[in-house]
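Many introductory courses stop at the sequence. We go one step further.
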Amino acid sequence: MKQMAIAVLVGGMAMASATVARADVKDAWISTQATIALLTMDGFSVKGATADTTDGRVTIHGRVGTDTDRTKAEQAVLKVNGVKAVDNLLEIAPANRQDMVLAVADADVKDGVEASLKTDTMMKDVTVTSVDDGVVRLAGKADNPAENLRAIQNAYTVPGVSRVASDIQTPNDE
């Protein structure tokens, strides 16, 4: 009887561990998708965007220019599949990014983003399809959402990039 109770206890612990592991993977997927949503929104950008997820509850960090942008960012994250709630910790920090965008020619931005992608061996199938006033559009294929996010983050490291739009396809697109 004692051995059976121990077996049931061990089996229950193994099932609980598997459930926790699946929840962690789901939360990581949600965090990745939420960060992509923040970094690729139309109309404005979130600087330093990050998303952390626990049990479907997403905490977003970064900087936006206005309170309206802060609200739009939260709404974009709420649309991500699996998000139950959003803790919006975005800071409102108006910045004149026009000066930065105008200071770098679009051709230089495109060259910089392409160079950044080339140095990252994981980005072999990602390309820059256009740059207009500092807005970079990426296309191609990535093996998973984390690589899509990595390509977007690589683009943001280039001076003159004001926003990134992504048409990168992943096998996990839902």
